[in-house]
Amino acid sequence: MRVIFASMASVGHTYPLIPLAVAMREAGHEVHFAVGEEMHRVLGKLGLRPFRPGFVFGEIYAEDIAPELERLLPDLVIGEWAVPEVVSEARRRGFSALWHGFGRMFPDNIGFVKPVGGRHVDICPPSLQDRAFLGEDRIPLRPVPFSPPGEVPVRTAGKLIYLTLGTAFGTRELLAEAVVGLGKLTDAQVVVAAPRVELTAVPPNVTVHPWLPQAEVLRYADVVVHHGGSGTMLGALAAGVPQVVLPQGADQFGNAAALVSAGAAVRPEAFSAGLIAESARLLLVDSSYREAAGQVAREIRHMPSPAVVADMLADVV
Fold it and tell me: For 53-195, where are the E strands, in sequence order?
């Protein structure tokens, strides 16, 4: 088959689609990826034929994707939730199209139009998914954390805490507050991914990096402190790691509530250095949070792999 994937040009929206896109390429399908140029380097290295439809930088509109649909004549279009006009335009022109989620179904009033009608490739484990969304139109897909390869910091302590506030919502002020708090846990090593943010005079047990291969770091972490973004949430759950969640916007508040309800995370009442440190310390000493995260990790392992879903999509079409 010839398949077009499409997403917003950001890590949080593009990376969740990569495992299925790679699996389809490895299964012998011709895969193209419509997205802004910011993502082209990573996608090109994976052989996913990235292209920028129209003058797109972020979201993709109907007038951007329409000529590309007629040029490529795909057998299947897989559009990420945040680019709804791709799926709508593909259907209007008679092409088979599926939605691809990036986590829990997002709530209203966060700036995205909710996808309507059709089938969804859903990477959220059912126990955390919005109950109103669970139904027959879902194609479950195991969330597989993706990040470009890179060097993982050398472990220097018995416990490792990973801190990230993502690429969109994190502020220098909150990051600095979290670093001060986690620096008080002197028996733990704290590694921080802080793109576009510079911090000075960090505690001796803290190292700050402009970028880290998150998928690899999560495998070694004992606690993850983050903003509640879907990618970090699902990556940590896949590794069975408990989380301290500091939601800032978009879908992050819903993600935080679902994690806390599942017993796999703590959300501090206030985002102060002391409460962030107290929350991380609790997760390090109370095994119930890791057990709850491990339960979700087992649920994720039983979801169909990208290779299995890639094989079944021909029948879906």
Answer: 76-80, 97-100, 120-122, 138-140, 159-164, 188-193
Query: Which 8-state DSSP code applies to residue 98?
Result: E
| Closest by Cα among 298, 267, 295 to 280 | 267
3-state helix, strand, coil in the chain (%, to 5): 40, 15, 45
**131 C-beta neighbours (distance < 10 Å), count:** 8
Mean pLDDT, the chain, whole residue set: 94
Give tens-digit pLDDT for 258-313: 999 999 999 999 999 999 999 999 999 999 999 999 999 999 999 999 999 999 99
3-state secondary structure of 143: coil
Q: With H, G, I as helix, E, B as strand and everything else as coil, classify residue 95.
A: coil
3-class SS of residue 31: strand
Say how far apart CA 139 and CA 256 lie, in whole Å: 24
Judged against a pLDDT cut of 80, whether residue 167 lies above it is answered with no
Residues 55 and 79 sit within 8 Å (Cβ to Cβ): no
Length of the chain: 317
Which part of the chain has CATH 3.40.50.2000? Answer: 2-143+303-316, 159-300
pTM over 0.90: yes
Enumerate residues 6+ apart whose C-beta is below 8 A from 317: 1, 75, 76, 96
- pLDDT at residue number 170: 67
Alpha carbon distance 8, 38 (integer Å): 10
Average pLDDT of the residues in 210-219: 94
Mean pLDDT of 19-36: 97
Q: What does CATH list as the number for 2-143+303-316? A: 3.40.50.2000
For the chain, how big is the Rg over CA atoms in Å? 20
